[in-house]
Amino acid sequence: MEKKMNLLMFSGDYDKALAALILANSAREMNVDVTMFFAFWGLFLLRNPETFTLEEKTVYEKMFSMMTPKGPEDLPLSKMNMSGIGKQMLLEMMDDNEAPHLSDFLKGALKKGVKFRGCKLSMEIMGFKQEEMIPELEIVDAKEYLKDALEADMQLFI
Amino acid sequence: MEKKMNLLMFSGDYDKALAALILANSAREMNVDVTMFFAFWGLFLLRNPETFTLEEKTVYEKMFSMMTPKGPEDLPLSKMNMSGIGKQMLLEMMDDNEAPHLSDFLKGALKKGVKFRGCKLSMEIMGFKQEEMIPELEIVDAKEYLKDALEADMQLFI
Amino acid sequence: MEKKMNLLMFSGDYDKALAALILANSAREMNVDVTMFFAFWGLFLLRNPETFTLEEKTVYEKMFSMMTPKGPEDLPLSKMNMSGIGKQMLLEMMDDNEAPHLSDFLKGALKKGVKFRGCKLSMEIMGFKQEEMIPELEIVDAKEYLKDALEADMQLFI
Question: Which InterPro entries does the entry link to (chains A, B, C) (predicted)?
Fold first, then answer.
């Protein structure tokens, strides 16, 4: 019988998103069904830098939109970010080991059939619009997340 | 058959506590059995600001009691807190969307029958007394947490 | 039937590692099978301060090796670390309650048969060598982690 994994992506950190997407890709290669549910800061990973807009937003939503990361490569590290120096160092170390970057793992996950779900309430509070996100993202509410997670064989809050 | 969810609340951040309590409330509305176990910084959420005391505490416990958040609305954000400016901005954005605040979700969870458990060892180390916490909190040890979590259909560390 | 717990150790914080090792020790005392999988910052906990080396490392790996914690007692707090003052305060409060320190819980977990696994890719990117880690650590890849976690009764991302 097919196994299921559900990841709740809350943090919006480069390193945590990297770990989660490596797990998601590996799980798909093992034929495990994978859902990733993005809430709060986690949604920054799925912003499409090319459809960024300030239209029809309140003043706070505009400020918030401008101050926060716009897509995968823009995310900070959870530790030792040091205004980006620590992150640059980690990226160089990844290159030395020919490890793909975050956006590569994201593309891989999309191609391999990982399901991408976004939290409706978080989208509303942050003022993000559907068209500002990657097209594969489906917006659902907390109950739809819970239904999926409760049926899964493992769940992580990342 | 009734499903069970167990959340280990470790972080003591406003945004993470908000996410957890939204999940807890939604789960109860779906008739899912919910236990929240509060350890370390997570216990700050359940301090009762009105029964705060410095009596019978060591010097370190007094300092610690004074320097740390006293109840739900006092918690910082996990990111972009910026000495409270970022949090104020998020609260304004929540108000614009008529989203309830953390203390509302906490009251909702208590009313809906979410079980609140606190970590005995954390309480002892931090010098918190039972009467300084919300009355619904039951103090248990790590083994009682594990027994509940191992029987649940999903567990998250938040 | 024997229950199984799987902990993914990502963070490398003193307080989170303490919580995880208390759970691991308690679970073993309840005869629960425990695997801890260390990735990214989590690996700092298992560095052996006595076999620290800069040989055969790139410039970035050397810098990274020197700037990061070297073993359990060197880890910072996830909150209120305040350049070590907050951590010192917490340690004094633990001593006042005769609570063991992190390295004691680590020794306990090793003695009680907790399985220690390290993430292969993280080791390569950070430039850590097997002989720089505690001897009980077995290096595995993401798929081996997933296989174990999917069979477990509970999984946490810490």
Answer: DsrE2-like, DsrEFH-like
Query: How are strands ordered across the β-sheet holding B33-38?
Result: B138-140, B115-119, B33-38, B4-9, B154-157
pLDDT along chain C (158 residues), means of 10: 94 96 98 98 94 90 91 92 87 94 97 98 95 97 98 98
**Alpha helices for B42-141 (secondary structure H):** 59-67, 85-96, 102-111, 120-126
Amino acid in position B107: K
Residue B6 and residue B35 in contact, taking contact as beta carbons nearer than 8 Å: yes
Question: Which residues of chain C make contact with A3, given a CB cutoff of 8 A?
Answer: 150
Look-up: residue for tokens 């594969």? A136
User: Out of A15, A16, A153, whose CB is closest to C150?
Assistant: A153
CB contact burial C103-127 (16+ within 10 A = b; e otherwise):
eebbebbeeeebbbbbbebbbbbbb
Of C7, C18, C115, C157, which Cα lies nearest the Cα of C75? C18
Q: Which long-range contacts (CB under 8 A, 24 or more apart) does C67-73 make?
A: C67/A80, C68/A80, C68/C41, C68/C44, C69/C12, C69/C44, C70/C44, C71/C44, C71/C45, C71/C46, C71/C47, C71/C103, C72/C14, C72/C17, C72/C45, C72/C102, C72/C103, C72/C106, C73/C101, C73/C102, C73/C103
Q: Which residue in this structure is represented by tokens 């083994």?
A: B143
Distance (Å, rounded) from C-alpha C115 to C-alpha C110? 8
Contacts of A125 in chain B (CB under 8 A): 90, 93-94, 97, 99
Query: Using CB atoms, which residue from C12, C41, C64 is nearest to A89?
Result: C64
* pTM exceeding 0.90: yes
pLDDT at C1: 65
C-alpha to C-alpha distance for C34 and C55, rounded to whole angstroms:
34
Do B73 and B101 form a contact (C-beta atoms < 8 A)? yes
Alpha-carbon torsion (B75, B76, B77, B79), positive or negative: negative
| Inter-chain residue contact A94 with C127, CB threshold 8 Å | no
Global ipTM: 0.95
**Contact (Cβ atoms closer than 8 angstroms) between residue B126 and residue C93:** yes
Radius of gyration over every alpha carbon of chain A, rounded to an integer in angstroms: 16
